[in-house]
Amino acid sequence: SSRMWPYQLLIRLLAPLLLIWLGWEAVKRQGGWWFIMQRLGWGYGWNARSKANAQQPHRSSPPIWIHCASVGEVRLISPLIRAEPNQAWLISCNTPTGYRAAQAIEHAHLSISYLPLDYPSAIRRFLTYWQPQALWVVETELWPNLFQTVKSAGLPITLINGRLSAKSLRAPCWLQHAYQACFQACEAILVRHARDAEDFVQLGAPAEMLQVVGNLKLSNLQALPHFPRPYAGDYVLIASCHPIEDIALIERWLGLDRQELLVVVPRHPHHGERLLQKFISQNHCVNRVEDLPAQAGAGRICVDNRFGQLLPWFEHAKLIIMGGSFVPKGGHNFLEGAAYGRCILTGPDNRDFAQEAELFEREGGLIICSDYDKLQQQINRLLSNGALRKRYGNRAAQLIAQQPDVLTAYRHALGRIHQQQDSA
Fold first, then answer.
1. Residue 108, exposed/middle/buried by CB under 10 A (0-12, 13-18, 19+)?
2. Which residue among 69, 327, 340, 351 is buried most deeply as judged by most CB within 10 Å?
C-alpha cells in the first residue's frame, strides 16, 4: 500500500548495516554460516548443526509454520506442537538460541529454520522451499513484508498469544500504518487478555478479528518435569538478569553477607563471562557452574551461562529473584518458579506479565519490589523467616493450579479457524 513506502525505503537503506549486523550476530551467538544464509533467504536444505534436522520439505502433508522470535516463544508453543504428534510442523526463529530451543522439542514431524529478513524476495524463497499450509505468528512479531508476502501466496495467518509492547503503541505514524497492514493480512488475532485486545484495537486492528483465549505461558505449568537438586546446599537464584541490573543485584546480595550460595543465570548466556571476569577482578569467590564445589563457602557466587538449565535451579531455590524487572525490559516469566512452589521476588517492571503479576501480588503469591533497596530488605526478611517463605511459595503454586486450561482453549480456537478456512 502507498502508506508503506517509508518502511520499504528504510529497510532498503538499512540493507548494508543489516549485513554487518548479521555477521556480528552469527559470531556473538555462535550461529554459523547457515544462520547468515537462511536469514538472507538461502540454504534451507542444509543445516550444519544437525543433519537430522535438514528434513526434506516434500512430505505428504504441508507443515503448519509457527514463527517464534526466540527462546521464550519457542517454549511457549512447544505444548501445542507436542499435543499434535501426527501434524507436520515448521518452526522459524530469529536467533541461534531460539533455534537450539526448538531442537530440544521431541517431535517426529518437526522442521526448524531461521526466518529470512523482511525482504519479499527472501520470504518468497523460504515459501517455495518449505511449502507451508498456514502461518501462526507468536506474540509481537509484526514484519510487514512477511505478512503481505505470505498473504499474497494465499496462506492464512493467525497471531497467537498476541500482545503489544508499550513501544509499539507509541510507534510513529508511518510504523503504525505498517503494523495495520500486518493486522489486515491476518485471519484472526488470538490474545492473552481483554487489555491486549484493547491495545490491538487502539493500534488499528479490526475488532472482529480479535479473540481473548488466555496466556499460553500458563499451558504447561501443571506438568513441569522434576529434577534432582543441581546443588546440595541452600542457594538463592537470580534468573534471567540483564546487563547493569545483574551487577546491581549481585552487589546488593553481597551487601547482606549471607551464607547461601548465589546462583546467577543471565538472560543471554554470553553475558555470563563478563560477570565472571568483573567479580573475579574484585576478588570475590566466583565459579562457573562446572567448577562449583559440592559445598561452597559463604559469599560464593555461581554463574551458569549454559543454555536451557533454568528449570532445575527454579525447582530447588530457597528464593528466586526474577531479572528483566529492575530495568525496562517488561519482566520475565516467573510462572515456572511459581509452579514449583517457590517464593519469588521481582522488580517494578512486569508489563509483559501485567495481569499475572497483579493477580499473584494481590493474592500473596509474588512480592514486587519498587527498587534495589526494597529488594535487599525483602531478601533479608524472607531468608530469616522460613514459614513466611513457605507461605508465599505455597500460595504461588495454588494460584497456578487454579489457572484455566489454556492449551485446550487454544487448540479449540485454532481448530475452529482451520475449519472455517477449509470451508471457505
1. exposed
2. 340
User: 208, exposed or middle or buried, with CB in 10 Å at 0-12, 13-18, 19+?
Assistant: exposed
Cβ atoms of residues 160 and 64 within 8 Å:
no
For residue 216, the 8-state DSSP code is: G
260: nearest Cα among 161, 156, 384: 384
Residue 355 contacts residue 195 (beta carbons within 8 Å): yes
pTM of the model: 0.88
Beta-carbon count within 10 A of 313 CB? 26
Q: Which of 107-121, 230-244, 292-306 has the lowest mean pLDDT?
A: 292-306
CB 392 within 8 A of CB 365: yes
What does the pLDDT look like over 224-281, one tens digit per residue? 899 999 999 999 999 999 999 999 999 999 999 999 999 999 998 888 989 999 998 9
- Residues 67, 64: Cα–Cα separation, whole Å: 10
One-letter amino acid at 204 equals G
161-185 mean pLDDT:
93
Average pLDDT of the residues in 367-393: 98
d(CA 31, CA 34): 7
What is the C-alpha separation between 396 and 315, in angstroms, rounded? 13
Closest CA to 162 of 185, 137, 191, 183: 191
Q: Which amino acid is present at 405?
A: D
Q: Provide the CA 274 distance to its chain's centre, in angstroms.
A: 23
Q: Which of 92, 138, 139, 141 minimizes the C-alpha distance to 113?
A: 92
Q: Which residues of 219-246 are buried (b: 16+ CB within 10 A; e: fewer)?
A: bbbeeeeeeeebbeeebbbbbbbbeebb
pLDDT category, 60, cuts 50, 70, 90? low
- What is the per-residue pLDDT for 46? 64
Q: What is the mean pLDDT of the chain?
A: 92
